[in-house]
Structures are given as C-alpha cells and as structure tokens.
Amino acid sequence: MANRDALRAFQSRLASRLQAARTSDVSAAWLAVEAGEGKYLFPLGHAGEIFPWTPPEPVPYTAPWFLGVANLRGGLYGVVQLATFATGEAPVAATPSVEGMRAQSRLVALNELLEVNCALLIDRLVGLRGVEAFVDSQAPATDAPPWLGHAYIDAAGEQWQEINLQALSQQTRFLSIGA
Predict the structure, then answer these.
(1) Strand order in the sheet with 148-154
(2) Residue pair 79/71 in contact by the 8 Å Cβ criterion
(3) How far is CA 86 from CA 51, 65, 134, 145, 173, in A?
(4) Deepest in the core among 45, 78, 168, 174, taking most CB within 10 A?
(5) CheW-like domain location, by residue (predicted)?
(6) Residue 89 gets which letter from DSSP?
(7) Pairing between β-strand 118-122 and β-strand 124-130 as defined by DSSP bridges
(8) Alpha-carbon distance 172 to 169, whole Å?
(9) What average pLDDT is seen over the chain?
C-alpha cells in the first residue's frame, strides 16, 4: 500500500510539473523516459496524459509492437511498445514475471492535438529535462527515420534520443498496425 501511495504522489508531482512547464517559462523541454535499453526524450507539447500500466486487450493480426487496445479514462487507445517499435527487435513474451516487472511501466498518451488515440508503453519515467541537462548533441543520421530527432549526451555520458511524437504519429509504418 505504501508503494501505491508513493507512486500516486510521484505521478501527482510529475503531472503538476508537466502542467507548470507548459504554462510557464520553465526550461524543461522534454519528458525523459526509458524503454527497453533506450533512453528517450518526448517533447512536452507532443506528450499527453501519463497512465499507469493497464494490460491492453490483444488485437489479432497486428504488428508485434502493437500490444492491443486499452480503455484509458474512458477513451480507447492503441498501445504501442516503444522499445519494440524503435529497435525492431522482437517483443519480450508476456509471462507472469514480465507482467510483475510492469510496476514502473507507464502508458504515455500522445497529445490529443495530434489526433491519434495512441499510448506508448515505456518502462520507466525519469522526469523532465531541459537543454541544460545535456553537454552535447548530435543531429540524426541522414538515413534515420524522420521521427528521430537529435541525440543528446548528459553529464554521465548517457545518450538520450529525442522522438518527435508528431512526426511519429504521421508515419505510415506507425499507422499501419496490420501484420
């Protein structure tokens, strides 16, 4: 019970900080998340509401990265496993031990202005980041997908990949969930 209370408090603080960042001159520009082995940055203007892990209802004959649909606060959202979509690697099979590790997992909905009812499964929320949190950046490779933004390096030497959720939401591969 204490873990749930702490989790709710963290989510409340993060939601408050996200709202404050959108309405003030706070320097935070991204929501930092981890998915699989990757560290990603979502522009705050593209990210929507953050939901606790809700197992989606599977949809047959879909791509391996499309986990199914979930009812999130009364809305029907497609759930995409970000790590699988971004890397192209096979998804981890849903076993009881994997489901048990979902305690820190979240579903980050795309902003409703993008007009795509989709939520990305991430393994962990890290928090808000601004450009001052990074010491270097690299432009995406010329052959990189158009939804990949700059890669940023933090003081610890960790690489964070920016994902343009607006560009992602318009990609044919992302919109074509059929297997």
Answers:
(1) 124-130, 28-35, 38-43, 159-163, 148-154, 134-138
(2) no
(3) 21, 9, 22, 10, 11
(4) 168
(5) 27-174
(6) P
(7) unpaired
(8) 9
(9) 86
> Of the ranges 48-52, 91-95, 117-121, 171-175, which one carries the lowest mean pLDDT score?
91-95
- CA–CA separation, 59 and 57 (whole Å): 7
Give pTM, 2 decimals: 0.79
Which CATH number does the domain 2-175 belong to among 2.40.50.180, 1.10.1040.10, 3.40.50.300, 3.40.1280.10? Answer: 2.40.50.180
Provide the 8-state DSSP code for 133: G
| Alpha carbons 152 and 159: distance in angstroms, whole number | 6
Per-residue pLDDT tens for 127-157? 999 999 999 999 999 999 999 999 999 999 9
CA distances from 53 to 27, 64, 103 (A): 28, 18, 7
How far apart, in whole angstroms, are the C-alpha atoms of residue 170 and residue 176?
10
Least confident of 23-27, 46-50, 148-152, 159-163: 23-27
From the list 51, 37, 39, the residue with the least C-alpha distance to 92 is: 37
